[in-house]
Design goal:
The protein contains 10 helices and 8 strands. The chain binds manganese (II) ion.
Length: 292
């Protein structure tokens, strides 16, 4: 697992992804000690890839991208126009990841990221799976993969547990579609932090590290010891990315959708360094279990 890239979500640094925001997030991610920056691509059509490519090259950083679809681009909708809009957005997001030299598009890319007031319909599920299959085929042409983020019940009505994600991935039936687990969401929905990682095994493609209140790692309820032990047990080698949100940094759409109402930290330089040390420290400790 020493080959995992350790990353940081760009929203730790800025909520504005204009040229200055892109440059700042890459520079700060590098300074905190990470290998990779995860860009939020809520609007991949307006993202300045040229600026991002230059900043990544200048700092020797890798990139990935994530997004949550909106009600207007919800591929689990029963409205064909909404589904088509979502497919076009995802296709463009895949292209952006390729341009950035990344390998994965992750996040809530299979539905809108919102509190649904009704359960998923059979037609909605069919639309979601069909679209993800076509987006995966496009990603495969570029040598890229997708990772579907399992999130809590207030952010989607499709994938709330790892096992639901595995069943969905099997229906998609593409080798370049994997599961993306996030400790913040697992802490709400799963029975423990160990089993979902083992259940996913080689189909785990992307990992988010977030505390139960999305603030400083080690100050909440998440059982990180079990989580990292499980990652060690399956020999996980994919990206491990720190995610934290505070009202200290606001992205107008995303912060509201995620319910970021409180200030959980002010000094993001210190927060980022702490998270980088926390993740690498746990990985080093877990590696020693091989010797037991
Ligand atoms: Mn996440």
């Amino acid at each position: 697992m020493s080959s995992s890239l350790i990353g940081c979500h760009a929203l730790v640094w800025t909520g504005t992804f204009d040229a200055a925001g892109i440059r700042l997030s890459v520079e700060k991610t590098k300074q905190a000690g990470f290998d990779l920056v995860e860009f939020p691509l809520m609007d991949p059509f307006s993202f300045d890839t040229a600026v991002a490519i230059a900043a990544l090259e200048a700092h020797g950083m890798s990139a990935s991208a994530s997004l949550g679809l909106s009600p207007a681009t919800d591929i689990s909708s029963e409205d064909p126009e909404v589904v088509a809009a979502g497919e076009a957005l995802l296709m463009r997001a895949v292209d952006v990841v390729g341009e950035l030299g990344g390998t994965q598009l992750c996040g809530v890319i299979y539905s809108a990221m919102k509190k649904y007031m009704d359960p998923l319909t059979a037609e909605g599920l069919e639309n979601s799976i069909g679209t993800i299959g076509r987006v995966a085929d496009h990603a495969a042409e570029l040598g890229l993969s997708l990772a579907l983020e399992v999130v809590n019940r207030y952010e989607t009505n499709i994938l709330n547990t790892g096992r639901q994600a595995l069943a969905y991935v099997e229906k998609v039936g593409r080798p370049n579609v994997a599961v993306h687990l996030d400790s913040y969401h697992m802490n709400i929905e799963e029975s423990d932090m160990y089993s979902p990682v083992l259940d996913c095994g080689a189909q785990l493609g992307y990992v988010h590290i977030g505390e139960s209140h999305r603030g400083y790692l080690g100050t909440g309820n998440v059982d990180f010891d079990s989580y990292f032990k499980a990652l060690g047990r399956i020999g996980y080698q994919g990206p491990i990315v720190f995610e934290s949100f505070s009202s200290a940094v606001v992205a107008p759409d995303l912060s509201r959708m995620l319910g970021i109402w409180r200030n959980l930290w002010e000094d993001n330089d210190e927060l980022g360094r702490n998270a980088n040390d926390f993740i690498r420290g746990h990985l080093t400790a877990v590696k020693s279990i091989d010797l037991h």
